[in-house]
Amino acid sequence: MSLYPNPHGKMCYWYDAAEKYGAPNIKWCEETLCQVVSEPANTWSNIGYILAAFVLYLWAKKTKHTELKWLAPAMFLMGACSLYYHLSNFYISQILDFVGMYLFVFWLLVLNLRKAKLITRKMQVPAHIIISLLATLTLHYMYLNHIKFQMIIAIGVLTILVCEFLAYKRSSLKRHYKYFFTGIIFVGFAQLASQLDLQRIWCDPSNHVLQGHALWHLLAAIGLTISYKHWAQEDYSLEVLP
Is the model's pTM score more than 0.70? Predict the structure, then answer.
């Protein structure tokens, strides 16, 4: 028996998976349909991440830096994991959804830790693995104790902003911030749309074309794609960024 209410009816496709592996800790506005794709709007909107991954792949082909080349597959996996979660709507797929976000968001965090001179290039992969593992363990602890773990990503984004400020204060390199702030604006509106969905301010459960959380996927994909241009200003071949 799950710690949380099973969103699927007893005769529905994903009911047994949610009973065996746990139900998700949150229910978005869109009603859960008794079919393979249980949340159509929240599922199809992840195509935004997959299209963004293709754009990042084309841009990253022009660079020799593996740091930037990783962002395209990370974006693709983030979209694929989120798509599977909203399609299936049970706890294990929800974990995969967060792991997908960790692959991308925490990699940007690691790059900002380098810019802030808090880690070196040799430390970035171990740092990314350790941060992601700790976040996953924290997620499970919060799940078991009925604590909303959606805040983990928000904390990650806040840490990116703090490190960006530290990098700005400490760096001798003149960086341009128009892409960074444009990306943040898109992500901010994405978060607003998602919160309107969660708080049932913008909520039509029967709308399977567009939901607030679906708009989160689309706007966040745009914002993170734009932000690539900001991180692409660096010469990542250096052990410590200037």
Answer: yes
Mean pLDDT over 189-201 rounds to 94
Q: Does 240 fall in a domain? A: no
| Residue 176's pLDDT band (cuts 50, 70, 90) | confident
Sort residue 210 into left (φ over 0), alpha (ψ -120 to 50) or beta: beta
In the chain, the number of structural domains is: 1
Read out DSSP for 142-156? HHHTT--TTHHHHHH
**Rounded-to-integer distance, Cα 133 and Cα 114, Å:** 20
By the 8 A CB rule, do 2 and 144 touch?
Answer: no
What is the DSSP secondary structure assignment for residue 121, as one 8-state letter?
G
Contact 242, 173 (CB under 8 A): yes
* Residue 9 forms part of a structural domain: no
Average pLDDT for 126-133 = 96
Taking residues 163-173, what's their average pLDDT? 75
For residue 34, pLDDT over 60 is answered with yes
For position 241, what pLDDT does the model report? 72
Highest mean pLDDT among 57-61, 157-161, 170-174: 57-61
Question: Which residues span the domain enclosing 90?
Answer: 15-231
- CA–CA separation, 51 and 221 (whole Å): 9
Q: Where are the alpha helices (DSSP H) in the chain?
A: 15-21, 40-44, 47-60, 66-69, 71-88, 91-115, 124-144, 151-170, 178-198, 212-231
Distance CA 235, CA 121 (A): 11
